[in-house]
Structure of Putative permease:
Amino acid sequence: MFKSLKISKITIISLLIFFMGLLLIFPLHLLPCLLSGLLVFELVNAITHLLQKLIPVNKARLISVVLLGTSIVTILSIFVFTVISLILHEIKTPDKFLQRFMLIFDKARHQLPPCIVIYLPESADEFRQIIKEWLYMHINEIQIFGRGAIHIFFTLLAGMILGAIIALQNIPDIKSLTPFTNALLQRSIILSNAFHNVVFAQLKISLVNTILSAIFLLLCVPLFNVYIPLTKTLILITFIMGLIPLIGNLISNILIFLVSLSVSIWAAVIILSYLIAIHKLEYFLNARIIGMRINSHAWELLFAMLVFDAAFGFSGLIAAPMYYAYLKSEFKNEKLI
């Protein structure tokens, strides 16, 4: 059978081991580590490609890692500082924080039907009590979420460090490698190429999503004499978050919804409905755009996303395009398809 397919046993064994390792990523909750590592590796290679025209390759790689590392540390520092400052500010002035929400509730009373209004808090004290009760009832879930967030942060950080270290390594001479090591190296290269293709496709998806959101927020919404604060900032956040498959779009939608609540509850509902429609459209955009990038039909990628979602949950849904692109590349290289 193997002779007819002309696939060496070493290739088959390396494929099985490599793909088993990829599947173990899910139960070990290391997908953030894998994605961040691949991202840093690709970014270092991209920057190196630009710099090596001016300086030697080894120095170009080192400078690329330094530039990228400095940028990441700066962005993370600004983000952490901003979040901590915001939290400290709200802790010092909790009444102002509650009053802002009460203003939203007061507006909602005049816009929502009575059957919904009766569930809204009538005062800041009542709202504070509701928050306390909710926190008490969901303390376990909050702790689990906190531990999960910390785990994701450190796995992301570990992945970035590993990606940078691997990017700094010199490309080994194939002749000096054993056949099995060379086979595993080829698997890694194919995975890296698959990730590269998916990332560039995601860039297009984010751009389309941002354009649709911008048209709605800047052109359509003002036609009804409704003006959303921080619109340009929200559009920028939409683009940046859109680079994160699926979940990034969800984060930007929540931010836009929260900001639009300050204007009107109905405006927020309409905007959220539109954003949800875009979010659903992203599934098909993923399939279409990424499918074109990896030479696959849209239905293939949609099917892969459904299977991975059913098997591994949300992590599987995020990883599905890359995993499918990798598998298809392997099959094409071995002329199985």
Notes: Residues 179-220 form the longest helix (42 residues). The mean pLDDT is 80. Residues 311 and 317 are 9 Å apart (CA to CA). The chain has two domains: 30-170, 178-337.
